[in-house]
Amino acid sequence: MKEITKNTKSFNKIETPIGWEAKQISDFGKVHTGNTPLTSDTENYGRDFLFVSPSDLGKTKYVTKTEKGLSTKGFNISRKFPKGSVLFTCIGSTIGKLGIAGKDLTSNQQINAVVVNDENSNEFLYYQLEQNAFKIRLLAGEQAVPIINKSQFETVKLLKAPLPEQKAIASLLSKWDEAIAKTQSLITQKEQRKKWLMQNLLTGKKRLKGFEETKWTTQPLDNLVTPIVREIDKPTEQYVGIGLRSHGKGTFLKPAEKPENNSMDKFYIVKHNDLIVNITFAWEQAIAIVKKDDDGALASHRFPTYTFIVGKAHPDFFRFFILQPRMKYMLQLISPGGAGRNRVMNKSDFLKLEFKLPKYEEQTAIAKVLQAVDKEIQLLKAKADKLKEQKKGLMQVLLTGKKRLKID
Q: Secondary structure of 185-240 in the HEC alphabet?
């Protein structure tokens, strides 16, 4: 890449490089708006034409699959978007979601489609819209249902490079998209494998080598954990609190809690590897194992904590075990009452819950297998994040012409 910084002119507070122009979206191609089916009869829905909505955009660059479709009766031919059209959501909370039509299709009224002309690259326009999505969204204002009408969308100005440079920029950014998509696919595969392993290893359907002959036994939680109370007086200064998400999504920290905002006189210290439950939302599976980063945080009386009995229960095993649907079901059984805060878990009944479990050694082995898969997923997610940051940096310099590609 080479850098061009001279002989530029102002364009919306950014620099317009030599040979580039500030052009309206309508200069890139014809803008069309989607429409609803001709009638609402169920016979008008089928597989003849692909019908997309905002929920279908943003998953992959090219849109070729959707669960929705229209029959020949329900399809308005005047609203057909040809393959290669650039799709942009212009209504509601999904404003800015993007895609490129991978085949001829139609959409609802929430989507505008740009049928790009021969003087421009549809992928270049796609990346320019991605780069400027936030700026475009501001046109909708702060109304209850944000909307960008067709005329507003058409007149949005973007930087337009010569066609050979558009294609070169789009080609380079596509390589990053391909790498991101490949990494995301690997993440999905690993997550599916983890799910399969949890379903089988945590129920004894699949046994690890060396443990095939060892029997699992049914036992109550009070054989495995011990209640622990680390009570302290209310702090006089800001403190780090701990919260617990429902649906098995773990703990979170509240790093700047103010004592004056809390009416309680006593707090309770949590430690790494404690089992912690929110008695108010246990029925929503608000249960977790305290992370290392949470050590020393303060909880209220609504968050009873338990330590695992060494040699009987391994906290790393239970990090996965408590995420099972059966755990949620059992917690619902001991949380009587209506919805919300009326469904308070009975702490005595909690310790009486019975589960079929392997011995400590097999728990440890299962935990290591699942942790290894978790580590692979974490590394892949870190790689995906790095690729996304690299792509973001490239977009910032390539789509503004701050860096120029050599064109053969």
A: HHHHHHHHHHHHHHHHHCCCCCCCCCCCCCCCEEEEHHHCEEEECCEEECCCCCEE
